[in-house]
Amino acid sequence: MTLHTKRHESQHFKLFRSLVPDFPVGEVLHEDAPDFRIRTEGRVLGVEHRLLFKPRRDASVSIQAMEGDADEIAAIAQEQAELRGLPPVHVSLFFELSGHLKKKERLELGRALARFVSRYIPEKNGRLELEYFDRREGHPPEVDLIHITRNEHLDHHHWHRVQAGWVMQDVRVHLQEAIDEKACKLASYRESCEECWLLIVANGDRPSSAIQPDDPSLAHRYNSPFERTYFMSCVRHNLCLLETSR
Fold first, then answer.
1. Which of 64, 114, 132, 169 suits a disulfide with 214, CB 3.0-4.6 Å?
2. Is the pLDDT of residue 108 over 90?
3. Are the C-beta atoms of residues 234 and 240 closer than 8 Å to each other?
């Protein structure tokens, strides 16, 4: 497992932990099989992490330049927020770029985003959505939607762009496939934990992970041997405990 992968898993775990009201307190080990183990009094809880991606479609026109612009702008905005001493927040930026931006334009937009978000930092453990059509003063027109999450478990800033593209909503088949894939390995997970949860994550930071399950997908009863099976959207910062049967 690469350092990049482990860093993403750690970020997802921190958000997940903050969204589960009864998450146990204990020492957390980030290893493998399962990805996380929480040592509590009398038991060890395992949490297995699984990213969810959309199936392949016909390739669209390349937008790599604009993706690079958006990544750089998000990085500039995060650096500015850190230099300003803002409290750590998780920020998702939905860009609406019409073309490639010059270096000076990218720098100015990143600074403008940091200034704008600084006005709307939520209270601790709060969330906020800022949409451009609300016409708040200072909201950059190049960004349609800004999600801000702040919770006590965040120890650093995490700002990222969410790439536009077709959004997959009916994911019942794909969620079950993800569960089945991990269910085959559950016996090995139980060698190091008494109870194991499955966390399925849509990161939402690029077209391949632009997934927003519809109500039928979230209400569907899935076959899962895990004690709990969750779906989490990193874009909307929400968590759903899926209905399951064994």
1. 169
2. yes
3. no
In this prediction the pTM is 0.63
Enter the DSSP assignment of 119: T
Compute the average pLDDT of residues 113-129.
Answer: 94
- At 142, phi and psi to the nearest 5? -80, -5
**pLDDT per position as a tens digit, 123-166:** 988 999 998 878 899 999 888 889 999 988 888 999 998 765 55
Q: Quick one: pLDDT at residue 59? A: 44
Residue of 6, 7, 138 lying closest to 77 (CA atoms) = 138
Tokens 């957390």 map to which residue?
28
User: Which range has the worst mean pLDDT, 46-55, 84-93, 166-175, 189-198?
Assistant: 166-175
Closest CA to 34 of 153, 182, 202, 175: 182
End-to-end CA distance of the chain: 30
Count how many Cα atoms sit within 13 Å of the Cα of residue 165 in the half-sphere of its side chain: 24
Note down the domain range covering 156: 64-162
**15 and 41 share one domain:** yes
* Residues 118 and 171 reside in one and the same domain: no
Distances (CA, A) of 111 to 22, 117, 128, 139, 146: 38, 10, 20, 12, 15
52 and 70 share a domain?
no
